[in-house]
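Lab notebook, bench 4. Still working through the backlog of constructs that have no structural model yet. Next entry is a single chain of 93 residues. Request: give me the structure tokens for it.
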Amino acid sequence: MPEIALHPFHQTTRVKLTVEINHDLAQDLERYKAFYKQAYGAEVSEADLLREMARRFMDGDREFQVAKYGLKARSRAPRQPAPSPAPAPKEQP
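Model written out:
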């Protein structure tokens, strides 16, 4: 099988999932669907919208990616400034 850069996207695994959400989130989801339609001119289902949101959320979670792939975690600690070089000794007259 040839190796190509584009992963196989025609194969999907379907799992039916029932999710309970509160009223405010349901309204925001409807608003986002309208926002998506305005931006792209296409209707999307709640399932498609939530699936893509969940995928992007997990793809963007660095700590989850570390756990998923066993990668080395990048430090989130702020960088310490490099120590200043010592001043050059003054010349004696």
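Notes after review: Residues 23-69 form one domain. The chain has a mean pLDDT of 82. Flag for follow-up if needed.
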